[in-house]
Amino acid sequence: MKALIVYAHPREESFSHALLQRVTKALEAKNYQVTVRDLYQMKFNPVLDGPDMIHIEDKQFVRENKQFPTDVKQEMDYMLASDLYIYIFPSWWNGMPAIMKGYVDRVFQHGFAYSFENEEVKKQFDGKRALFFTPTGQPQEIDGKENPLTGAIRMLTSGWLFNSNNVQVVDHVFYGSVPYLTREELALYLEDAEKRIATL
Asked: Fewer CB within a 10 Å sphere, N or C end of the chain?
């Protein structure tokens, strides 16, 4: 089994990086072959250029460039070769970091991640699963209920990315109030992540 981790955080001292390390080790303990795509370390270009962007002409979906850029095609190949996708990114301004959003813009393209014209596109994702981890500074409970922002972020990220293909989203886990917690409290989050991987 192969796992693909797409990770976005610029600081190695961050909780997100500790989470990446723990999840990687937990996957390896389950004998997954793990590929980590650290978008900041890669200096991934997040900008979707006009010639690579789908648009409509004469009621048809077209793209000026007929081939995907080499760096994008590489990410697509990693996805197709993997059985499990793990996405680790913090919530900044109630959304993904810009580099992760740019990854989605460029990699989750029409004709690859979804298609309005070809039913075969979604079938290439049959049997694949996805799991999301999002550390955030926001509390996850307010007055005993889930923070309403959490549901909105979930819907616009994990709830939307795979709605047009056959990837099963296992869960989107939010770890709240991260900057305000002790090392001991953060360690409980890491243990939780490890247990979630162990039960996959």
From this structure: N
Nearest to 80 by CA among 47, 40, 127, 29: 127
Q: Distance between CA atoms of 60 and 56, rounded to whole angstroms? A: 5
Alpha-helix residue ranges (DSSP H) falling in 30-69: 39-42
Identify each DSSP E strand in the chain by its residue range. Answer: 2-7, 33-38, 55-57, 60-62, 84-88, 129-135, 141-142, 145-146, 168-175
Angstrom distance (rounded) from CA 107 to CA 75: 7
Q: What is the mean pLDDT of the chain?
A: 95
Closest by CA to 35, choosing from 93, 74, 92, is 74
pLDDT over threshold 90, residue 144: no
**Token duo for residue 83:** 């059985």
Q: Please compute the mean of the pLDDT values over residues 115-132 and round it to a whole number.
A: 91
Question: pTM score, two decimals?
Answer: 0.95
Token representation of residue 61: 């979906």
Angle (CA) 157-158-161 rounded to 5° is 75
CA dist., res. 147 & res. 124, Å (int): 35
Please report which residue ranges of 30-110 form alpha helices under DSSP H: 39-42, 70-81, 98-107
How do residues 43-72 score in pLDDT, each as one tens digit? 999 999 999 999 989 888 889 999 999 999
**Which residue's entry shows tokens 């080790």?**
25
Which has the higher per-residue pLDDT, 33 or 149?
A: 33
